[in-house]
Amino acid sequence: MKVLWQAAAHLLAYPDERFWRRLPLIREAAAPYFAPFLDRVARLGAGELAAHYVETFDLDRRCCLYLTYYADGDTRRRGASLAALKRRYRAAGWELMEDELPDFLPVVLEFAALDATGAEVLREHRVGLELLRAALERRGSPYALVVGAVCGTLPPATAEQRAEVRRLAAGGPPAESVGRQP
Known about the structure:
Layout: H1 2-11, H2 17-44, H3 46-58, H4 68-72, H5 76-91, H6 105-114, H7 118-124, H8 126-139, H9 143-152, H10 159-171
Helix pairs in contact: 1-2, 1-6, 1-9, 2-3, 2-9, 6-7, 8-9, 8-10
């Protein structure tokens, strides 16, 4: 699982030069999990994959790589969730870079790969992962293969989690209008 999570962290990062340099290592270490993804992105090439990444993760709110967004949306509660994640990382001896949010899926996956408490963070965000996987599948995105592999490492979703996935898929994440002018 740890190798899969570490590889997935790299594969879900923006496909810059480092992404392409790491692909041979990822293919060697985690090909059984990601061969279909690796084959698809090799056919796409750097420019097309970068454009797909931006279109998918930056412009489609249903394909958000920030896990607290699914449960908390754009609310004040999300700030508390982010702070709680930062505290968990610090308790494990991790310090995030200033430009990283603690709920960014590649960060969470790297934490899960390197710290025993990280798997719990993934389990807690199972609903968000399932929503992301489903949205990526609907788009026909190769990234659905990566998120699907991550979901496959977690215990099956509970009935309550599946109901929450359906509810959020139908209505979207919560939003606040406090302080906004009508």
